[in-house]
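Kindly review this record before class:
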Amino acid sequence: MQTGTLEGWSCFFSENSLVQTPVSYLRAAPTFLITAEKDDLAIAQPVHEDIPLLCDLGYEIEHLQCADVGHVDGALDTLEIQWNWIERRLQGEEIGDSCLVSEPVLCAVEE
């Protein structure tokens, strides 16, 4: 492997992508996708670009983008929101605004 190249690693990048994976998409399950506007670990922009591509493949995605938070706060601040989303799916409620990329909104639960 040459120094400064992705040679030898490119297969990991393509295999670790829902959009580019060679694994066939088998069935639809609603998906709640949360991104954090200031996430420096799981960068939001590439995820946002993949949402329409995944929807074209058959995924049903509801997206929430949390404003002004990073990776950990985006996950932790939305735990109650995530739980409520799951409960609504279990009760048979359809997801709203499927396949739209959300504008950043405040996600912290007020105490």
About this structure: The beta strands are 30-36, 60-66, 104-105. The helical segments are 10-15, 44-56, 71-76, 79-90. The radius of gyration is 16 Å. The chain has a mean pLDDT of 85.
